[in-house]
Write a structure and sequence with these properties.
The complex is a heterotrimer of chains A (about 425), B (about 350) and C (about 230). Chain A contains 18 helices and no strands. Chain A has about 425 residues and is mainly α. Chain C is globular, with a radius of gyration of 17 Å. The chains are: A mainly alpha (about 425), B mainly alpha (about 350), C alpha/beta (about 230). The complex binds adenosine-5'-diphosphate and magnesium ion.
Amino acid sequence: MSMNLRNVLLFAAMGALLVAVGVIQSANVALAILNLCLISAIMTLGVNIQWGYAGLFNAGVMGFAALGGLAAVVVSFPAVPQAWAVGGPRAMLGLATGVCAIALAIVAWKRMPGSRRLRGWAAAGVALAGIAVMRLVIDPAVEAIEAVEPAKTGFLGGLGLPIVLSWVVGGALAALAAWAIGKIALGLRSDYLAIATLGISEIIIYFLKNEEWMARGVKNVNGLPRPVPYEIDLQQTLWVQDLAARLDFNVIELSSIIVKLCYAGLFVVALAVIFWLSERALKSPWGRMMRAIRDNETAASAMGKDVTWRHLQVFVLGSAVIGLAGAMLTTLDGIFTPTSYQPLRFTFLIWVMVIVGGSGNNLGSILGGFVIWFFWIEAEPIGLTLIEFLTSGMAQDSALRLHLIENAAHTRLATMGVVLLLVLRFSPRGLIPEREK
Amino acid sequence: MTAVTDILNALALLSNFVLVPGLAYGSQLALGALGVTMVYAVLRFSNFAHGETMSFGAMITILVTWWLQGKGVNFGPLPTALLALPIGIIGTVLMCLLFDRFIYRYYRRQKAAPVTYLIVSVGILFILSGVVRFVIGPQDRMFADGERFILKARAFKEMTGLDQGLAIKTSQGVTVVTAVIIVALLFWFLNRTRTGKSMRAYSDNEDLALLSGISPARVVAITWIITGALAAVAGTLYGLDKGYKPFTYLGLVLPIFASAIVGGVGNPLGAIAGGFVIALSELLLTFAYKRVIAYLTPGDWVPDGLVQLLATDYKLAVSFVILVIVLLVKPTGMFSGKTL
Amino acid sequence: MGFLSGESMFGGYGGADILQGCSIGVNKGEIAVVVGPNGAGKSTAMKAMFGMLTLREGSVELDGREISDFPPQERVTLGMGFVPQNANVFTSMTVQENLEMGAFIRRDDFSTTMEQVFSLFPVLAEKRTQAAGELSGGQRQQVAVGRALMTQPTVLMLDEPTAGVSPIVMDELFDRVIEIAKTGIAILMVEQNARQALEIADRGFVLVQGQNRYTDTGAALLADPEVRKAFLGG
Ligand SMILES: Nc1ncnc2c1ncn2[C@@H]1O[C@H](COP(=O)(O)OP(=O)(O)O)[C@@H](O)[C@H]1O
Ligand SMILES: [Mg+2]
């Protein structure tokens, strides 16, 4: 792994920024940023596998991240036996009906004899009828499940397994979805692929928001079990109290720092593993072929490479990594909030990370994830300080000044846009450019 | 007799909850889709920033509306925003031209790939959404004034003697009328004027347009002028009808793309047709037919459930599903063609 | 070397030079024909003469004036018309709109010119409201030539105007080309159907790998046994 001086310096600068935040704001803030930097870096690696290796524009990052989040709930939350008793099997049957309906519609479209128009109407008819049947099956179950202690559960719950397992499950779930999506959408032109993936992931998120029996939808699932100790418990332990006394630290703060460090430890391991695998893949003959296809699809397919199949592989792998990162994020938050999967934050921001970091370069993706997340968070205090400084000449209660200060936080959106455009224009290969073959 | 009134009641019900809102929303989508289609036909990329461009136009209009309202100016029964709209249009057009001059033009000269433009438009999306929230704040803004209704539900009931009311909001009427005027102007421009034809020619065959002495710079500038104007109008009408919230406009991008693609990207007629297809499908698939069926079936029978295919929460999802299906089955849309 | 001439042109599409020093030209009222094998650079030479390709070396002159640095639009203004080999009509626009677009740079009344085009190609008058994309190959070529004539050019450059049309239509088109030349317009034409084209040519150029292989009058080239053997199929 050739880490040249420039890269070392870039990462060192990034580290220095985090340390600076630790000193100026607090260690807690710095560690909170660091943890999300680590998750962002993994998500960015996933997008980089698709875009950097193969030139696929996946705008559905948010959907795959949300599926990861769903996995965290399903794996870790204890089952709700009462809900299962009143409607579990029936709900599962309903879900199966829905899947069958879609499958039948696809079969009708692909296999039925007759003109396109006829097949189209047949497929639409099958789909609508299927939905109607599904609703007949599932509606009573949904109602019953959602009536079980609606304030606390009102959903089926999960498997009650350790939440770290969900990272793998989340990756698998995302991979499965990506396989289905890729199967149908990968033949599309670049911008249509982007629009289609964005649309499909919006559908996934709508589903998660509205199907409360599955993961409580917009009511969120709180209090997911943690893979690391709880602050309260830590504060009771002698060694923490001891350490706090010795370091002259507040116990509460120290406990929270320890928790964050534990998370950071887990995340670093995950990041290292994924980075190592990604690098291996990139440098393997498989990776070289992917890049060859990316650079000249026509030539590659003329040489007998199965471009569609390769694209499907890379799409599934990248999405799996995104799903894993999504599960990690929900693990860190301890709460699953379907409404939080906004395209701006979960698709476009990740894209900024990939492009600023350097498309095609895994190290660049990690750096991009760090830098962009850092500024996404810190643009707010920096912008506020800047605006307070710039408006310090105005009257304290000037309406304009108050308005500017109140809305300072939104400058971060514009900042991201400007950063993206500047990088695209003046350094289109990013902070750490792709290595030549 | 009762049979006839029952049918009329059912129709009134459908008109009130599907047809009238569908026409208004469809017009808004159609105007938005026309903007996307113009950019696609001439500049050949999918502009992800179009929703935010609409938001920007609506914002300027709202600011000017407030200023006018502060001066005590009003437009009688019509919303004051219509008086402010020209300024909103000018502001949005200037913004578009500025972005083109300093950002898009560079990539045009590089002959960049469409996906590069797409990423650039994402950058502009960020900038615009930041600017809009910074200037006007992220809150909801109501700026509709004037008469709230053209036709009130009660007045309709009294007029017709039906049980079901039919209300038409001023914002809905204004939306449809404005959309008709704008679309008529646009089609006149594209099909009857020399400049409009030159745009179609450029969109059809860039190299040949060049050989005919058509200036690309001019065509591009006019495209942005039209796109900016369409966006400002669409954004304002949407805000008037549904209330202005900055964050909803990003969510509009997909229904707008859906409208444009369903009709056939690059085809203005298609964009309009697509807008209405999307709007009406959203409403038809999430409408609860319970009462309509009650009216249409003899006797006092009323269905048990709501007789609703999809929960109302899935309204926007309908457009995404249509979008995805069209992309997969017939990406060229109903009216194939990538030219104006 | 003529009213319009490209002298010792070198250039290409960014990679290796496609044009390796070829020279072509035409005089007023003359028909000059460029023939040669596929990929010889005939189209490239035409594009270079029209400014759609920057020359690395060499020059283009029109009526004694050096125009090498002029963009295509300016050459249109100076009286040059060009019918490219591919995509030479606006398929989504009507025949009449195609002609209008041909006259785009004219600010005067061009209805007489349009009538002239219609009398030259009567079928276009019939189909004036039909989209050009719906026409047959031969009709499309007529639209393409008509479009280029709308600026009342002094030089008309045609790149394979008879590509993909039947022999009868080809003869018809050649007749029209002769008719146009008789009005005093210089015609520079690339042709695949070398024999027929050279028959109507005042001047002929045989291009191979971006260089002039033979240059002579049309009749002389037709008579040259070497040319016949190598390029005219015996
Ligand atoms: N747009 C282009 N970009 C790159 N190379 C081109 C382009 N057009 C033509 N060429 C190459 O230039 C050479 C000459 O092509 P062309 O001038 O079209 O030949 P001709 O018209 O004599 O058949 C060919 O090798 C062709 O591959
Ligand atoms: Mg050629």
